[in-house]
Write a structure and sequence with these properties.
The complex is a heterodimer of chains A (71) and B (314).
Chain A lengths: L2 E8 L5 E7 L4 H7 L7 E5 L2 E2 L11 E6 L5
Chain B lengths: L10 E5 L4 E4 H18 L8 E5 L4 H14 L5 E8 L6 H14 L3 E6 H5 L3 H10 L5 H19 L4 E3 L4 H14 L2 H6 L13 E2 L7 H10 L15 H15 L3 H12 L13 E2 L6 E2 L5 H8 L12
Parallel strand pairs in B: 3-4, 3-6, 4-5, 6-7
Antiparallel strand pairs in B: 1-2, 8-9
The chains are: A mainly beta (71), B alpha/beta (314).
Chain lengths: 71, 314
């Protein structure tokens, strides 16, 4: 199975980089790789919010936004 | 492209609890419908009400204010927004202008009450004193003092309800925390609307059936200006419970709703604390209290702090 490479950046942390995943991988798979719970983050592709079931594309640049509210 | 299960447009959210994808429009509609359902099911907002909405500037309170303000336009309901400035350097100073701007945009009067003007000290200063005296943690201090200022302000403003932005995650975490701590009295006080005992303005939670993540997405889609920082004092058992509940929800979707539903079913069967004692007025601030001093004034006294202001709203 061929692989794709996606870039990611996690807001409010210094974590960013790239990740190799199978070609049919979804957002939820990327979150799993990065040990991020989908309940606690919102993912954006460019300016658009994407569903965790959205299929990833080679070269995707994703922003992962934690949703912890602090009172 | 993942499609909306209802209209076929591009999906922005997979609602795990229902197993459906929603586009921006269907998502916003669903959030507003669930807000209305919680409000009407529990009689949270009634025609003629004066509502004080607690607004910190974060996504929950800003979304709550927006939903309440829009809902109220057709219900002859007056809305006032209130921000408590605890005095947390580098955190709260950024959120107050956001709370003000959101209120102005909605044509809602906005008030700010600060720890410094009422107690003569900021939370940062109180935290330092408390640490030196082996007193309560910063979160405990902040919770007690903030709740008391919210209630007192709402009472002085003659509000019928005090609306807070507690979401489904907050509610389930608090239920679980009270189990872990074995605190039956606090557990029993939870719910969509608190009792309006003498001196207490009923607290309402219109967002209690909407997840934290859903509110964050709603705020983003509505392009609401929000303060996205995390409180520097956030720590302790709640963070552990949050992680645990989120892990359960990920592996077993609907966990959060089940915790809430189970609690709501169980609540009427929890033993009622005796009401034999009469609530008095705190000798210092006038807040309802079982003792001569309310918890806030007792706490301040133990820290050697003298309250500066008795009346909050001039």
């Amino acid at each position: 199975m061929s692989e794709i490479e996606v870039k990611f950046r996690i807001i409010q942390s210094d974590r960013s980089g790239s990740c190799s995943l199978p070609s049919n991988a979804q957002i939820i798979d990327l979150l799993g790789e990065l040990d991020q719970n989908p309940e606690a983050v919102v993912v954006k592709r460019g300016k658009k919010i994407v569903s965790e079931q959205e299929e990833l594309e080679d070269g995707d640049d994703l922003t992962i936004i934690p949703v912890v509210s602090g009172g | 492209m993942e499609e909306c299960s209802f209209c076929g447009r591009r999906a922005v959210y997979f609602q795990r609890t229902a197993g459906v994808n929603r586009c921006d429009r269907c998502f916003e509609e669903n959030i507003e419908k669930r807000f209305h359902r919680t409000v009407t099911k529990n009689d949270l907002i009634e025609p003629g009400d004066r509502i004080v909405a607690a607004v910190s500037g974060g996504s929950d309170s800003v979304a709550n204010l927006n939903l309440i303000a829009h809902y109220s336009r057709f219900k002859k309901v007056e809305v006032i927004s209130l921000t408590i400035d605890e005095g947390i350097r580098g955190y709260r100073d950024g959120s107050i202008p956001i709370a003000r701007e959101n209120s102005n945009r909605l044509d809602v009067e906005h008030l700010v009450i600060s720890f410094e003007e009422v107690f003569g000290s900021t939370l940062d200063e109180l935290a330092e004193i408390s640490q030196k005296k082996d007193g309560p943690t910063t979160c405990t201090l902040c919770g007690i003092l903030r709740r008391s200022l919210l209630n007192q302000s709402a009472r002085e403003l003659e509000a019928d309800k005090l609306a807070v932005g507690h979401n489904l995650d907050d509610e389930t975490q608090t239920i679980m925390l009270n189990y872990v701590r074995g605190d039956m009295a606090r557990l029993r006080r939870l719910g969509p609307k608190s009792e309006g005992k003498k001196g207490f303005v009923p607290r309402i939670k219109p967002l209690r059936e909407i997840k934290e993540k859903e509110i964050a997405i709603y705020a983003m889609l509505k392009d609401l200006d929000i303060h996205a920082e995390t409180c520097p004092y956030m720590a302790g058992m709640r963070s552990e419970v949050r992680e645990f509940v989120n892990k359960m929800e990920k592996n077993h979707p609907t966990t959060k709703f089940k915790i809430l539903r189970m609690f709501d079913k169980m609540k009427p069967h929890l033993p009622v604390k005796s009401n034999s004692f009469n609530l008095k007025e705190c000798k210092i601030c006038g807040e309802p209290s079982a003792d001569e001093l309310c918890r806030s004034c007792e706490l301040l006294k133990n820290l050697g702090i003298e309250r500066r202001k008795k009346t909050l709203i001039s």
